[in-house]
Amino acid sequence: MNVSTRFIVIDDDEFNNKICSVTLEKIAKDANVRTFLSPVEGFEHIVSEYSGNDNDNSAILFLDINMPVMNGWEFLERFNELDTELKKRVKIYILSSSVDKRDIEKAKADKNVMHYLIKPLTKETIRLITYSQNR
């Protein structure tokens, strides 16, 4: 895999996080997958790991939208306020079970969302992401 091998999964569903981890590790043997049940903790991790002008780390983030405490839309509002350089380092893919067209359109309207994906994460989806990242 020629794209980032750092992945972040933020979803309040532990089973989905496990599916994502296993799927990513099958595709990229050297994958570094961090999962968070709490969007707040995931956000704090991103800020601490990907801030700074001398930081060249990058990651792909799979973000659920329907979560308690802070939902995916609230997460994106906070993310959009972050430093431009940090935002360039973290590529966001919404990964949701929602097929509501309003959710899909809202995700498309956010300049920091690469794509809206329907759960579960599959090998084919990861290959498409890999292909689009290499273009």
Task: Describe this structure as you would to a colleague.
This protein is α/β, with parallel strands linked by helices and 135 residues long. The chain has one domain: Response regulator (Rossmann fold, 3-Layer(aba) Sandwich). 45% of the residues lie in helices and 21% in strands. It has six helices and five strands, in the order βαβαβααβαβα. The chain has a five-stranded parallel sheet, sandwiched between helices. Helix 5 links the parallel strand 4 and strand 5. The protein is globular. The mean pLDDT is 91.
Chart the SSEs and their pairings.
Elements: E1 6-10, H1 14-27, E2 32-36, H2 39-50, E3 59-63, H3 72-80, H4 84-89, E4 90-96, H5 101-109, E5 113-118, H6 123-133
Parallel strand pairs: 1-2, 1-3, 3-4, 4-5
| Poorly predicted regions | none
Strand order of the largest sheet: 2-1-3-4-5
Total number of beta strands: 5
Q: Give a short account of the largest sheet.
A: 5 strands, parallel
| Percent of residues in beta strands | 15-25%
What is the CA-atom radius of gyration, in angstroms? 14 Å
How would the global form be characterised? Answer: globular
At CATH level 3, the topology is: Rossmann fold
Helix content: 40-55%
> Which structural class matches the secondary elements?
alpha/beta
Give me the CATH superfamily.
Response regulator
- Domains (count): 1
CATH class value: Alpha Beta
Total of DSSP H or I helical runs spanning 4+ residues = 6
Order of helices and strands: EHEHEHHEHEH
Oligomer: single chain
